């Protein structure tokens, strides 16, 4: 599956520079991604927003994201056919030895960004909701699971500050910045 996607490394380097800007920026308001049923739960990969990729429908971006880590068509189908995003994640975990994309790698980040982009392209109301977040910082709150990949994709509040890479939040903020309508100034 991953051989169908050729990462645009020049674009990725540009995105990395934007990523670094967001890492240093702090805003007074923070949007937390926690549970699907909460106000901003739609920003999470477990939300019930199906996406289509290469003519196939995935029930959630989590299912697509997990499937993109594999080349074996049988594993990809097994992930896609799961009825819940957590079940899709568990199938991927079961086949971890067959992954062709290293979790938390540059390819993994590229795939996550693709999933988020597909989500807002295929659900225009989510694009509008994302733009409505203004300049607020977006953080995947992993305070209840402060280990492993959780601190890569999200951040945990330690009582004083947020600790973690928060890659999911940064990707959302980058995408939001790119989706901002451009304003032409009259000369």
UniProtKB/TrEMBL annotation:
Protein's name according to its UniProt entry: Swarming motility protein YbiA
NADAR domain ranges (all copies): 37-180
Catalytic activity: 5-amino-6-(5-phospho-D-ribosylamino)uracil + H2O = 5,6-diaminouracil + D-ribose 5-phosphate; 2,5-diamino-6-hydroxy-4-(5-phosphoribosylamino)-pyrimidine + H2O = 2,5,6-triamino-4-hydroxypyrimidine + D-ribose 5-phosphate
Organism the protein comes from: Thalassoglobus neptunius
Source lineage: Bacteria, Pseudomonadati, Planctomycetota, Planctomycetia, Planctomycetales
Top-rank lineage group of the source organism: Bacteria
SUPFAM superfamilies found in the cross-reference section: YbiA-like
């Amino acid at each position: 599956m991953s051989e169908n996607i050729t990462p645009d490394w020049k674009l990725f380097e540009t995105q990395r520079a934007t990523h670094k800007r967001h890492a240093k920026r702090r805003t007074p308001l923070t949007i937390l991604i926690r549970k699907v049923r909460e106000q901003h739960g739609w920003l999470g990969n477990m939300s019930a927003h199906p996406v289509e990729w290469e003519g196939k429908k995935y029930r959630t971006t989590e299912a697509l994201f997990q499937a993109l880590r594999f080349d074996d068509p049988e594993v990809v189908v097994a992930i896609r056919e799961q009825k819940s995003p957590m079940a899709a994640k568990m199938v991927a975990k079961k086949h971890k030895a067959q992954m062709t994309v290293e979790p938390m790698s540059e390819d993994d980040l590229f795939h996550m960004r693709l999933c988020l982009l597909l989500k807002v392209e295929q659900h225009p109301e989510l694009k509008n909701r994302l733009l409505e977040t203004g300049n607020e910082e977006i953080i995947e709150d992993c305070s209840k699971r402060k280990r492993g990949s959780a601190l890569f994709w999200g951040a945990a509040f330690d009582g004083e500050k947020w600790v973690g890479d928060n890659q999911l939040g940064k990707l959302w903020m980058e995408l939001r910045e790119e989706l901002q309508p451009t304003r032409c100034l009259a000369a």
